[in-house]
Amino acid sequence: MSTNSKEKFINVQKLGENYKKIEEKGRKIQEIANEVTKAAAIGQKQLQFLRSELPKYEAVGDSCPEIQRLLPADDLWAQRAVEDSENALTRIEQAGSTLHQTINLIGTSVSTISVVGNMAVSGINWLSAQYPESQIFVTYQLQDPKPFFDSTDSEAVSKLLGEYDPELESERRGAWDAFYSSSNAKRSQSSHSMRDVLRKFISKHASNDAVKQAAWWTIAGDAKDGVSLKQRLRLLAYGPTADASQSELDFMVGQLEEFERSYELLNKAAHGSKQAETAIEASMKAAEQLLILILRRRVLTSDKQPAPPA
Questions:
Q1: Would the pLDDT of 61 be above 80?
Q2: Residue 155 contacts residue 288 (beta carbons within 8 Å)
Q3: Closest to 25 measured CA to CA, from 85, 84, 93, 105
Q4: Is residue 222 part of a domain?
Q5: What is the DSSP letter of 224?
Q6: What is the model's pTM?
Q7: What is the pLDDT of residues 154-169, one digit of tens each?
Q8: Contacts with 5 (C-beta within 8 Å, 6 or more apart), sequence order
Q9: Sign of CA dihedral 186, 187, 191, 196
Q10: d(CA 34, CA 205)
Q11: How many domains does the chain have?
């Protein structure tokens, strides 16, 4: 095993351990959240009772001094409870913000895996479709990628892209409608549509003029009009002012270029082949996971920016 392969194995193993720990800690947080919800529900129920009954009890106390000392003489108890409840509210809002960031962090991690995995699945299935006599799946004992596809978070793609650009989200859904249609040209139509979504997303929201207005922009000498693809992706993922991870941007650029290169190959794959359809499906999923990786990173970057002055 080469040094690079060893490092890759170590990172994959570490990633698996991290996901397991996150899942375990997430379940503990669920348990705590359930306790918080339960306590708040009990508080509301008891308060509703006291609101109704305390005035009546006080009326009884007015006529029966023996029980007067058992009733609250003032509202200091309520003031104390309000202070604790407001502190609890502040804490839960802080926890909510932290959990929101956590969701997007784990989301970017999973989206990165999805991009890589779907591109790899696409390539293997394209090869299998082109050379069916090779029996690649049998020879190398490859698993059916369906479980991998089924675990892809398509709902998150729809939500984030729908919030960012409803028109492009409609086009993305249209690409999948074409893929699942009975049309003979469904493979080329769906693949072309998904490529258009990705291209429009970049050109529409990271135009040359928009990139040039970013605080970090400098002329890219080897790019048309001084704006590179990497700079476009930086604007989309990190915004016009924030620092950016160059390694992540390199990853995004590389995956986008691979998607473009694979587009022509996929549309030349053998017609009517199940492997060809799977290759197209994986390529489309890789494209939309790249979209959501960019959008999730943008949300995380926005969360880190200081709030504007009131």
A1: yes
A2: no
A3: 105
A4: yes
A5: G
A6: 0.85
A7: 888 999 999 999 999 9
A8: none
A9: negative
A10: 41
A11: 1
